[in-house]
Amino acid sequence: MDDLQLGAVIRAIRKRRGLGQLDLARLAGVSHATVSLVERGHCERLSLLTVRRIASALEVRLELLGRWRGGELDRLLSRRHSMLGESFAAFVLAHPGWIVEPEVSFSIYGERGAIDQLAWHSGSAHLLVVELKTALVDINEMLGTLDRKRRLARTIAADLGWRPSVISVWLIVEDTHTNRRHATDHRVLLRTRLPLDGRQLRPFLLRPSLATSGLAFWPNANPRSTRPSRRPNGGRDDAQQAPQGARSSVDSGRREIGNGS
Predict the structure, then answer these.
(1) Contact at 8 Å (CB) between 252 and 234?
(2) Which pLDDT score is estimated for 66?
(3) Pairing of strands 98-108, 111-121
(4) Terminus-to-terminus CA distance in the chain, angstroms?
(5) Which of 35, 216, 240, 259 suits 206 as a labelling partner, its CA being 20 to 30 A distant?
């Protein structure tokens, strides 16, 4: 919806709840004039935080929708996601004994969805659930989705003829400054649910004996990208590096989250 429609929604819900503009202003911690601006559709004069505070006071959830050149934005995002998946799958397949199934859809007792990648190591009967993200947006929703996929993974794998004894879950995130910042903002929650980082990814794939959960930042796989790259581990040599060309966050991204830098 546009700004005028949002203003109409705020006004309608405010009236439905029997509130005046001044009442809403007090609940949101903003001025009376600010509420009036929103209801008249002049959101461009205000910060996003202010608009969200007014909406939140009415229990209205705002979701941003970006539009760019018709359907080209969807194609751009899909391409980035595909390239991220291609890069990570190649990394997994470089380790002996692993096979990868991309985009595994499921429908189990009304629960529907798709797992970005399922990796299987037959020698250890180890199943790896991989979630790929080009952008970190709603951390709580994402972690809830990961938990659901972990819970259903054994049943989903059975349809592929796999009988896992151990299940691991890894979140693979495109390495961008924005994603790093969002991860830092939620470092406590992410570390609790996904305690390992990219430094433990290669050792895990080489010796998949124990269940693991982790988050690894993955380098931009676009060969035409002009972004500068750094050697893994900040330029230090390491026998357990991520793929050549990976940015240091693949190996030390969790360390950054841990120290809040």
Answers:
(1) yes
(2) 65
(3) antiparallel
(4) 37
(5) 259
Class of the CATH-defined domain 72-259: alpha beta
Angle in degrees, 0-180, between the axes of helices 21-28 and 32-39, rounded to the nearest 10: 110
Residue 233: pLDDT above 70? no
CB-based contact 114:129 (threshold 8 Å): no
CB 137 within 8 A of CB 183: no
* 225 pLDDT above the threshold of 70: no
CATH number corresponding to 3-57:
1.10.260.40
pTM of the predicted protein model: 0.63
Contact (CB, 8 A) for 175 and 222: no
Closest CA to 216 of 236, 229, 200: 200
Greatest mean pLDDT among 55-69, 115-129, 215-229 lies in 115-129
pLDDT digits (tens, 9 = 90+) for 78-114: 788 889 999 999 999 999 999 999 999 999 988 889 9
